[in-house]
Amino acid sequence: MSDRFAVGERVRVRAAWPPGHVRTPHYLRGKRGEILSIAGRFANPEELAYGRDGKPARALYRVRFEQAALWPDHQGRARDTVVADIFEHWLEPAEEGGA
Amino acid sequence: MHRHHDTGGEPAGPVVPEEHDYAAWEKRVDAILRLLTQRRVITVDELRRGIEELGPGAYDELSYYQRWIASVGNNLLEKGVVTVDELGRKLAEVEARWRAAGRQGEAAP
Questions:
Q1: For residues A12 and A28, is the Cβ–Cβ distance under 8 A?
Q2: Are A70 and A31 in contact (CB under 8 A)?
Q3: At B18, is the secondary structure helix, strand, or coil?
Q4: Nearest-neighbour CA in chain A from B8: distance (Å)
Q5: Cβ A18 vs Cβ A90: under 8 Å
Q6: Which of A16, A22, A99, B49 has its CA 20 to 30 A from that of A91?
Q7: Do B46 and A70 count as a contact with CB atoms less than 8 A apart?
Q8: A30-88: per-residue pLDDT in tens?
């Protein structure tokens, strides 16, 4: 099974707020970033959290975001970034959707 | 709307980077979780989910290991490893023993 996204590809985190246990941080939802690396495939924590096996394993990406794009009052350097681990089902191509 | 625990990026005061000693009961809580995960009774994901489900009041008021043991207890109840009656009686027994030892002046674990 190939991974949906490649290193260097621009992605957008889904702007979704489902109930339940979710690892994708609120402050990154709806934001655009770039695939930095592919961490591997792991059982889905959203299922593991409720006692299920979390299979099939899902691709987990390290995604890099520009701090200035995350915080309206960012006062650090323009090149400051933050890297977060985000599962594939929380990502979509950056071209899709609006902001 | 984000959930109560998901506070990344919000003001949270200064971070105080200092070591602190662990109470005996905190080490026991750590040992209980290690045993339960090694024996595949619960996962760390279930622990975390249980902590998030404590709600805004308890989530803020309980200490780190108090959150752990509250979540472990609720998970074990959900799975039927212990019953409400068993857990309630044991907690009452422990509290009575603690009071009998004259430790009313200390912070209850």
A1: no
A2: yes
A3: coil
A4: 6
A5: no
A6: B49
A7: no
A8: 999 999 999 999 999 999 999 999 999 999 999 999 999 999 899 999 999 999 999 99
In a domain, B106, yes or no: no
A45·B3 Cβ contact <8 A: no
Q: Minimal Cα–Cα distance from B93 to chain A, Å?
A: 30
Expressed as residue numbers, the domain containing B42 is 33-60
Name every residue whose Cβ is closer than 8 Å to that of residue B83 and which is 6 or more positions away in sequence.
Answer: B77
Contacts of A49 in chain B (CB under 8 A): 43, 45-46, 48-49
Instruction: Work out the average pLDDT over A9-24.
Output: 96
Looking at residue A5, its pLDDT comes to: 97
- The answer as to whether B75 is a domain residue is no
User: What's residue B104's pLDDT?
Assistant: 60
Regions of chain B short of the pLDDT cut 50: none
One-letter identity of residue B53:
E
Is there a domain that residue B41 lies in? yes
